[in-house]
Each structure stands twice: as C-alpha cells, then as structure tokens.
C-alpha cells in the first residue's frame, strides 16, 4: 500500500511539472503572454483597428489587432505569442491599420512605441519609432480674416495660421511629422468642428479651400468660412466665442472629426478683432496617449 501511494505521488508531481513547463501551441512551439494597457486611445470606427508589433532582431512581428470603444475599453489586452519572440523583443510599436488589411507589414501610422527595460516597455508618442516628438514645445498663433473675399468683408469668418507682422510669416512652430501623419486646422463653430485643411508645412497653403471665396488666399494654412456650409451651420459666420484647434491626424484619416492628438488649442474671445495675432495654448500633455507593454 505504501509503495502504491508513493507511486501515485510521483505520478501526480510528474503530471504537474509537465503541465507547468509545457506551454506550447499545437505544433509544439512554446508560447508566452504579452499584456497591454493604454490611456487616451480613441474609438477608430469600423474601418480601422489598432495593431501591436514586437521588434525582434530588427523585424516587426505582429502581436494582434484590437479595437477601443468609446469609453476607452480594449477589445483584448492579453495576447499569446511565440515565446522566443516575446523574450527577444527589444521594442513594442502600436500602429493604426485599415480594416480589412491586405498588407501584412506595419502601416506608416505609428502612434506609440517604447523600448523594453526588463519585462516592461513604457509607451509614448515621443519615441523615435512612433511620432518622434511629444509636441510639448509646440507653439502657435492665429488671426481672424477673410482674404478670399477682399478686405473688410466678414473678417471674423475666417482663420489663418500666419503672423501679419512678419511679412506675413508662419505663426506655427511645429515639428516635422513622420510619414503617416499630417496636421489639420479646425474651427469649432457652434459646437461643430469644421476643418480648415490638412498640412505638413507651416509656411505653405494647406490642401483645402472648399469654404473659401473666389479670391486667392495667402500661402499659409487656414480657411475662410464663406460658402458651402456643412449641414446645421450658416456661412459667413463669426468665430468670436469659438475655439481654434491644430490636431495631428493619421494619413489616411480615420474620421472627419479631429483625432485625439490636439497639441494646440485656443479659445476665441468674444471681443476678438480681425488681423490681430492671438496665441494658442499648448495642449499636448492633455491629449497624448500613453501605454505599457508587459511580457
């Protein structure tokens, strides 16, 4: 009886040891778990998803796709992966991908990244594998004016990111963005954000003039809100009392609304006058997402 009990005990521990040391998939590859946590990510809608990547010996290996709902809840935050990849990963990168996506490689839209220190990587937009800057040093200003319908006509119905005392000159001081990103100006009119156009050069015209008048605008980002008003709005308007925003948008863009990254914001005073340069506040620390990857 004692020998049978001893044999049973040995058999039990043999099974236990096997079950602990053998975390393998169906083809015998050892697996490990990667856990992700984020703050500040937004719902991308039906056409895009987030995708994580491990950088292993310079090669990007997917950790899987996930979505984020309107409350910031991830559809999945734990991913079972090849153990060698997890153990040898030096960097984690988060991208935005089209859905469905026929390209197995990462898109150019890198939003967060971080290097592993031990088993954890702290993720930021400022990492060189993401946007490469945290935008906390960005500065800017704007004027109210409507150059595309001549002087002294509805001057508070347009916003331009230029400094009239500098020649005129650029009024925005923004870092150059990596591929996959563009800046976009916005005027929030009666609670509705209306785009002034996307741009990558603060000293050149942006890519949109669909609300402007018939005359040419200055070679800087901005827009006159004179024609073709979106549903629910009336142009010309008065931007006094509204809000001016410069956002950072994925390219291609996931939405007609401003993306979560909004480094510059300004409230337009009710007494604002045209052709006066008004400063914008740096808002980057309030909108930059963060995260951790743990292995």
Description:
- The protein is mainly beta.
- It has 2 domains: 28-133 and 290-294; 141-279, no CATH class.
- Helix content is 10%, strand content 36%.
- The protein is built from 3 helices and 19 strands.
- It has helices at 2-21, 83-88, 284-287, and strands at 31-39, 48-56, 59-66, 78-82, 91-98, 110-117, 120-123, 141-144, 158-160, 162-163, 169-170, 181-189, 192-199, 222-224, 243-250, 261-267, 278-279, 281-282, 290-294.
- An 8-stranded antiparallel beta sheet has the order 3-2-5-6-7-19-1-4. The chain has a 5-stranded antiparallel beta sheet with strand order 13-12-15-16-18.
- The longest helix has 20 residues, at 2-21.
- Mean pLDDT is 91; it is low at 1-23.
Q: Let me know the average pLDDT.
A: 91
Largest sheet: 8 strands, antiparallel
Question: SSE string, helix = H, strand = E?
Answer: HEEEEHEEEEEEEEEEEEEEHE
Quote the distance from N terminus to C terminus. 46 Å
Instruction: Count structural domains.
Output: 2
Cα-based radius of gyration, to the nearest Å: 26 Å
Determine the fraction of residues in helical runs and give it as a percent range. Answer: 10-25%
What is the beta-strand fraction? 35-45%
Number of strands: 19
**Parts with pLDDT < 50 across at least 5 consecutive residues:** 1-23
């Amino acid at each position: 009886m004692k020998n049978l009990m001893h044999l049973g005990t040995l058999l039990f521990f043999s099974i236990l040891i096997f079950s602990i040391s053998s975390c393998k998939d169906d083809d015998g590859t050892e697996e490990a778990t990667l856990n992700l946590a984020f703050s500040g990510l937004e719902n991308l809608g039906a056409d895009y998803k987030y995708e994580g990547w491990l950088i292993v010996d310079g090669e990007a290996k997917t950790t899987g796709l996930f979505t984020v709902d309107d409350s910031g809840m991830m559809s999945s935050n734990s991913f079972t992966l090849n153990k060698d990849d997890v153990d040898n990963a030096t960097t984690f990168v988060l991208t935005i991908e089209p859905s469905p996506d026929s390209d197995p490689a990462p898109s150019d839209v890198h939003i967060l990244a971080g290097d592993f220190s031990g088993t954890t990587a702290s993720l930021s937009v400022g990492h060189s594998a993401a946007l490469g800057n945290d935008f906390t040093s960005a500065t800017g200003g704007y004027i109210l004016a409507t150059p595309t319908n001549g002087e002294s006509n509805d001057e508070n119905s347009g916003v331009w990111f230029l400094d009239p005392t500098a020649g005129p000159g650029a009024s925005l001081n923004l870092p150059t963005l990596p591929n996959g990103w563009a800046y976009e100006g916005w005027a929030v009119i009666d609670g509705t954000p209306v785009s002034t156009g996307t741009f990558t050069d603060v000293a050149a015209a942006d890519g949109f003039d669909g609300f402007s008048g018939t005359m040419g605008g200055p070679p800087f980002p901005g827009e006159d809100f004179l024609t073709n008003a979106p549903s629910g709005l009336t142009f010309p308007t008065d931007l006094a009392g509204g809000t001016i925003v410069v956002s950072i948008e994925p390219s291609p863009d996931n939405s007609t609304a401003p993306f979560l990254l909004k480094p510059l914001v300004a409230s337009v005073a009710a007494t604002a006058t045209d052709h006066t340069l008004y400063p914008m506040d740096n808002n980057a620390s309030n909108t930059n997402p963060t995260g951790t990857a743990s292995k």
